[in-house]
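Subject: Fic/DOC N-terminal domain-containing protein

B.,
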Amino acid sequence: MDKTAFGSSPAGSLAPTIGGQFAFVPHDLPPELDLSALLVPLTQATQALGQLNGVMTTLPDPYLLIRPLEAREALTSSSMEGTYTTVDALLLAEAGFEGARQTADTREVHNYARALRNAIKSLDELPLCLRTIKSAHADLLKGVGRGRGAAAEAGEFKSSQNWIGSASIKNARFVPPPPRSLAIGCMRSNSIFSGKTARRFPRCSTQRSSTISSRPFIRSPTATDASAAFLSRSSWSTGRRSVIRRCS
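Prediction pasted inline below.
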């Protein structure tokens, strides 16, 4: 990884890792964000979400609107890793059509959508914490082949260094935080940030960026992106009647 590209970044710092290389460690997220320059667009976005929340509470099943968006999220994020399927195939898998699940890509995208839903539903009983994030990761890798991550420490944060863009860490384009202490510390910072920030809506992009930079799981980027999506979605999603919470 090119140290000059990350060494002076305001978003993080460098830490030594294996092979004499350096990894990028995101800074802890702040307890509050300075939103003064974004006051007008944030107010407009909050009002729009409030209107949508009002519509959702009048529906017998709010997921009539939410599930297609979840499917699109699963398709888009999975395609970043080269995992492709179609909306039709995914919906057939969602409906229990076993033939659709025989395709490895469709199974993986279906797992993504299911992991996201299960994680959001778990917020009815558990606070947002590392346990819920690791459980979502385990759901993501259920039933996938060894070549697609079955042996990649499902439900556990990485225990070895990972990197992006090369077969060798020496030529990697990006090296996320070293395993265990730093990676877990980044995720713990994210969960604390999620619980303490007053304005929930604007934190989503900041939180997602920090989580993706942390790459806490060996199976990435889809697993990381699923965790990021869950962290962001948990700001305003529930698993029951009122799916979208008002921003405050």
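The longest strand covers residues 12-16.

T.
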